[in-house]
Design a protein that fits this description.
The protein is α/β, with parallel strands linked by helices. The protein has helices spanning 15-19, 22-31, 46-51, 61-66, 86-94, 107-112, 128-134, 147-150, 192-201, 218-227, 241-250, 260-267, 284-287, 314-317, 321-340, and strands spanning 5-9, 36-41, 57-60, 78-81, 99-103, 115-117, 175-180, 207-212, 232-234, 253-256, 271-276, 294-298. It has a six-stranded parallel beta sheet, sandwiched between helices. Strands 9-8-7-10-11-12 form a six-stranded parallel beta sheet. Helix 9 packs parallel to helix 10 and helix 9 packs parallel to helix 15.
Length: 344
């Protein structure tokens, strides 16, 4: 590739979308280490973008839409629309960025981009991260990356320092698991009663459980917090995103449905336990967390009754707390049991 710099664009306010676009930066850096890479995000996703060592410059979405943008003092030469966003596409055309890469499946890309990639996502069996990488075809990069290979492309260092020592008390003798029960409406959710039953079944001498969520989600989480208050540490609304990333980095596992925090745990090489619906296009084949310690729980059914998030999903509720408890018990034995055995 002949460009000296490039901007990568995705849905800037979505942690999951941002994370699953980060491998693009690493692949491009591997090909051209001198390439200057900017990545469009929001203040909400800034900490994730700036943590990635393959990205040189964070670009605030509002700045991109309203101001002239430079990358290390140079005008941008290329923008890659990993995920189509109309306002970003239109703005990149207005800025007259020389090379504007998009998919041929969006009519507005025919009007705003000058390099189109033949890529359809709707019925694809590929993971979202693999689909994003397909956008690099225009640079002659045609490698089919496996999910195992992609797990090594997020370029995330140890971020445990982001959580101040005095902020949350952590017990190094117990397996530390974060439960992030809500999704902000972006995914089908396991019932609060299932989470309650799971937490009540865990041995408090072995597991330190944190309940995370935003201030806005606290009201919805009240039944859970009240039912297990003596067994968990409530961190809802207590941490900003960098601090929450630090907490994830210092814990052992995170349990959630298809949400940004689940993807964060996976790329930080934590046990990321995802609870999923089996329906297209929200199924794990498309949106599973990618990491060497990631695993998903999904009913083995070809059900397509709940393709929309707001539709009640009976399949996800059919996943029993006992199966999650069994997985956590295995992880405890694997990671902590050996540490607790007396030396002979």
């Amino acid at each position: 590739m002949n460009t000296k710099n490039i901007i990568i664009s995705t849905r800037a306010h979505k942690i999951g979308d941002v994370i699953l676009s980060l491998p693009l930066a690493t692949i491009l850096k591997q090909i051209n280490p001198e390439l200057v890479i900017g990545f469009i995000g929001t203040e909400y996703t800034r900490a994730v973008i700036e943590a990635c060592t393959s990205i040189d410059i964070f670009i605030n979405e509002s700045d991109f839409l309203e101001k002239e943008i430079t990358l290390n003092g140079q005008k941008p030469e290329c923008i890659l629309h990993a995920v189509p966003v109309p306002k970003i596409s239109k703005r990149s055309a207005k800025l007259k960025i020389p090379l504007r890469i998009g998919t041929n499946r969006r009519i507005y890309h025919w009007l705003t981009c000058n390099k189109l990639v033949n890529l359809t996502r709707k019925k694809s069996n590929l993971h979202e991260a693999q689909l994003n990488i397909k956008m690099l075809d225009c640079f002659g990069i045609h490698t089919d990356f496996s999910l195992k290979q992609i797990a090594d492309l997020f370029a995330m260092p140890d971020l445990s320092h982001l959580l101040p020592e005095a902020k949350i008390k952590l017990d190094d003798k117990r397996f530390k698991v974060i439960i992030h029960a809500k999704s902000g409406g972006s995914a089908h959710e396991w019932s609060l009663q299932h989470y309650i039953d799971l937490i009540k079944s865990l041995d408090v001498d072995k597991f330190q459980v944190f309940i995370s969520g935003t201030d806005k989600e606290r009201l919805a989480l009240e039944p859970l917090l009240e039912a297990v208050s003596d067994k968990v540490t409530d961190v809802c609304g207590l941490l900003n995103l960098p601090e929450f990333i630090g907490l994830i980095a210092r814990c052992d596992a995170l349990l959630a449905c298809s949400t940004g925090p689940l993807h964060l745990a996976a790329i930080l090489n934590k046990h990321a336990l995802g609870i999923y619906a089996p329906s297209r296009p929200i199924f794990p084949q498309r949106w599973a967390p990618i990491g060497h310690k990631a695993q998903v729980f999904v009913l083995d059914e070809g059900c397509n009754l709940c393709t929309k998030v707001k539709t009640e999903c009976f399949c996800i509720q059919a996943i029993q707390p006992a199966s999650i408890k069994s997985a956590l018990a295995h992880l405890y034995e694997q990671d902590y049991q050996a540490k607790s055995l007396p030396l002979k």
